[in-house]
Amino acid sequence: MTMVGSAISTTGHQGGNQRGPEKLLIVDCDIHEGTRSQKDLYPYLPQVYRDQIEDFGISFGGLTYPSIAKGATRHDLWRDEKTHPGTDVELVREFFDANGIDYGVLTGGPYGAVAHPDADFCAAYCRAFNEWEVDTWISADERFRGSIHIAPQDPMLAVQEIERLGTHPKIVQVMLPAGARFPYGNRFYHPIWEAAETLGLVICVHPSAEGAGINSPPTAAGYCTYYPEMRAAWAQIAQAHLASLIYEGVFAKFPRLKFLFIEHDTFWVPGLLWRMDADWKGLRFRVPWVEEKPSDYVLRNVRFGSQPIPEPPNPEDLLTHLKWMHADQTMVYCSDYPHWDMDLPTKILSGVSPELKRRIFGENARELYRLL
Amino acid sequence: MTKHRHIIARLADFPSGTRRVVPIGSKAGIGVYRVGDRFFALRNICPHEGAPLCEGPQRAHIRAERSGTRYQIRYEREGEIIACPWHEWEFDVTTGHALHDSRQRVKTYPIAVEGDEVVLYLEG
Prior knowledge:
The complex is a heterodimer of chains A (372) and B (124).
Chain A lengths: L5 H4 L17 E5 L15 H10 L12 H4 L16 H11 L3 E4 L12 H18 L7 E6 L5 H11 L5 E7 L12 H10 L2 E5 L20 H21 L2 H4 L5 E3 L7 H15 L10 H8 E4 L11 H8 L2 H4 E2 L21 H16 L3
Helix pairs in contact in A: 5-6, 6-7
Chain B lengths: L2 E8 L8 E4 L7 E6 L2 E6 L14 E10 L2 E14 L6 E3 L15 E2 L1 E4 L2 E7 L1
Antiparallel strand pairs in B: 1-10, 2-3, 3-4, 4-8, 5-6, 6-7, 9-10
């Protein structure tokens, strides 16, 4: 197979060759880095867990839907047959250069660790991954920003890990997959949200681990059978988490906490905001801690990743959608490197005004993560 | 309008089930496929986002056939379907049509075997 790397060699109108004040700030909020081998984490793991993995495998469980070959990656990113493009630090740096990406948030990750019943093992595994991420990636390029992966099965251990790493200058968020035991507004998680708020860390939610291990089924109707079916279900999981966050009063309790939902699509955002605002007029008395209308909390406390960008049959309808979801405040750019469904900054939002582009590609994320 | 004759490969050097992307026509080039003893050529540009279409996977046509109350997966026409390396849109190499929408089409070119050479004629 020839490795062409169009995503690497492409230099578009926002590309790295551009200089000066007109250079569009691009913050990519979804870069998936990974280990080449499970053994990469061994130096960071207690011996008991190294032995356990050697004897039994990682055994996080999970629903391994067949998706796209070679780790669901985009084929032309592979530099050679052996090197997964998410494990190649140099390749990611070249990807940033070619596409003019100023900051990239590393999202990993060891997502299955939220679904195994052994909270101590999972906390140790996440900690090992975090240390490896700092040593291998964050120290390799000024543009990388990092995530703290946590296993929420024991919130106290998760808080300890957030407090251990949360003051690192390059760490900007806490990462959780959408697969969960409870909707994220549930008070079980509040100590975690409190720790993140105190340290100014965003909580980023990415699809994964739905229906895996000890987690809830991936839909209220039951388990999906196929990969595209599961993808279509991601939005309803994010909706359940978001409504839970609003009505459990998380943003009333933690007013400076920021949540970022990435890769959950955004087609549902306007409709859910309308539904919640309409309901709140008559049902506020059932949730009196929700003191502001739900969309006000969302505009202040919640952000959404752009990828996969909606592709309506009439491209002009995208502008209406972006207006309805207040994308000038709520949407941040995500490539989802190195996955097959990734969006290059040069290939999306071509019909959008320069000002809205500026917000989505860079300014919203710069404000969210307090970059520069 | 003149026709330019381009030699793609010697027949013996172009086994069935393989492809060549040759730098002719537009800047993106043209992908040439051999499936059995038939040859097909497509412009190497995906109509979605302009990706190098012919550098993606080449596979069979996987379709479902109703059998009573169940479906059977059929694995047919090995090598006649290609997928874009970017977002995996599938195209039929024999016609250039997208599998998801026959109105969406990649330009195809006539290709011939002349003696022991595989050749493609381009106008202009």
